[in-house]
Every structure is written in C-alpha cells, then in structure tokens.
Amino acid sequence: NCNYPNDETFTFCQQCGYRRKPIQEKPFKERLSIDETDIAQRLQQFSQQRSSSRYVSQKSALESEFPHFLASLTSAKSLASALPEDVIAFLVWKDRAGKTKVHQPSCPALSRPDLSCACPKRLAFGTVDSMIGKLRAILADNGRGSEWHPMLGVGNPAACRSVKTYLANVREERLKARVTPHQAEPILVGDLALISNHIEHVLLHKANSAIQIFVHARDQAVFKALFFAGDRGTDLLLTKVSDILRLPDNSGFLFNHNWTKSLRSGDANVFASKRGSKKTLCPVRGLEVYVSVCKS
To answer: Which residues are within 8 A (CB) of 120 and not within 5 positions of it... i.e. 6 or more apart?
Structure first.
C-alpha cells in the first residue's frame, strides 16, 4: 500500500519490498469443441452486410483515394502523418469534380439562369460536409483518434478547426452564388393517375417480354404505395413479404417496418394501406397486380 509506481508485471515492490502473490489458473480437464471456420464465416457475413450500404461503399472509395493523394504530394505523406492542411488540399482537389455551377459575383448568369457561362462547377456544400465526416472516420480507424490537439499538433486532422473554417467558406461561397439545395417536385394525384394509366396500358400490351411486365408491375405497386404511405422510398423498397399482412376483411394491407434509415433501435413502424374506390390509384390493387404477375 505504499503507492509506488511499479511496473504492471512487477514481482515485488521496489520501495517497500512487498512480494506479489502469483495467481495460479486452474487447468481445464477437457477442451471445448470450437469451430473456428464457422466463427470466421459468421464474421465475414457481418462484414459483407455492412459493406453493402451506400455509406460504406463511399467511405471505401475515399479510403483508397485519400492515401493515394497524400503519396502523390511533393512532400509525400501517409494517413499516419497527414496534417489539417493536407485534408483541406484534398478537399480542394476533389472540388474540381463537382456538378454544381458556382457563379462568380460578376457573372451575368447569376441573375439570368438561362444564360450559359464559363463559371466552374464545384461540389455541393452537403457533399463536402459528408466527405469531411468520412475522412474523419477513416483517420480514426487508422489510429488518429477523434479530436485534433493544436497545442501538440497530433490527433485527427479532419477534426481541426481549420477544416471547419474551410467548410464554412464553402457554404458562404455557395450561398453568395445563390446555390441552394433543390427540393424535389411534389407528385400530385393527377400525376400519379397519368403514370398509373400509362403503366396499365403497357401491361396490357401483348408484345412485352416477361421481364418488362415484371418491372412495370413492380413500379406501379411502388409508386402507389409510396404516394399514399408517405414513407421513404428506400425504406419501402426494403419491405419483405413477411412485413406485409392482409387485413381480415380484405380491405387493405398492414405494413410492419422494423429496419429503416431512421429506425434502428428495434422499434416497429406499423401503418395500414386501405383499399380505395379508384382502381387506377388504389395501392392495395397495385400490390395485388404485382403479386399476380409474380405468380404467373
């Protein structure tokens, strides 16, 4: 109890002479039956499941591109030696591959969108923000931590204040150029009626192949269900047969979601889709047509 800072594996205390009592582990009488191949396959299954997401695929692309960029600098760097300036240089280098037109203050097309100009195309602000988050995760996975310590000059360079300042400058530039996020145009009932009538006409055409009939039957079911459910498109496309139940009186379907983009805690999102009076727009009939096509 002298509190002397001995080594972790000390045998006796160098100050008071205390002798550490050895801990003897009891030998096991028999070995457990362990299938290490099955364990490795199970872990590989989880790895493939994670790598199938869009975020992981984008992160993997950056994970190979960022070290290549660092190695191509005049003073070659690596993930272990990258600085905040290198992260900002990479973001500027990636900015050239954007698709958003950023007009200069003197550009006449700034007030007249119908004019063509030679202003450069840059990455959208949201894309740059997302890229910084992925770079921060990549550097953290390679032992750089989660924060940047400016006094010591160590840590995660993507978390440095200068990188955040660059992001603020990008946002200011985009706003001054009147670049704002585009909102998707709403689809009204009339639009859904036109789409449904067109697909129904295509389904009745006898010259279509089996795959064309399947694709159109699937699309009309998705459009109708998405319109009336108000659910995320990606969440609806992840719906499985076991997630849909028919109501006892055959008046509609019951959807039960437990894994979506914003639902990852084990809770369920249950909603019903009722049969409508207009067959062309009815989501229940749309699903029934899709199931009938699949069976045939």
So the answer is: 96, 101, 102
Cα–Cα distance measured from residue 116 to residue 134, given in angstroms and rounded to the nearest whole number:
34
142, 158 contact by CB (below 8 A): no
Q: Show the tokens assigned to 265.
A: 């805690």
Q: Are 223 and 196 in contact (CB under 8 A)?
A: yes
Which pTM was predicted? 0.63
Whole-number Å distance between alpha carbons of 258 and 267 = 6
How far is Cα 10 from Cα 19, in angstroms, rounded to an integer?
Answer: 9
pLDDT value at position 204?
84
CA distance 158 to 64: 16
pLDDT at residue 66 in the model = 96
Sole residue written with tokens 């789409």: 195
Q: Which of 249, 253, 246 is CA-nearest to residue 231?
A: 253
User: In order along the chain (296 residues), what is the average pLDDT of each group of 10 residues?
Assistant: 81 86 80 92 86 81 94 94 96 89 82 79 91 95 93 94 95 81 79 92 83 92 86 75 87 79 65 88 92 88
For residue 166, give every residue at least 6 positions away whose Cβ sits within 8 Å of its Cβ, in sequence order, or none: 88, 91
pLDDT at 112: 75
Q: Which two tokens stand for residue 247?
A: 């109501």
| Interatomic CA distance for residues 203 and 280, integer angstroms | 13
Whether 258 contacts 269, CB under 8 Å:
yes
Instruction: Compute the distance between CA of residue 161 and CA of residue 202 in angstroms, rounded to an integer.
Output: 57
Instruction: Report the DSSP pairing between strands 244-246 and 148-149.
Output: unpaired
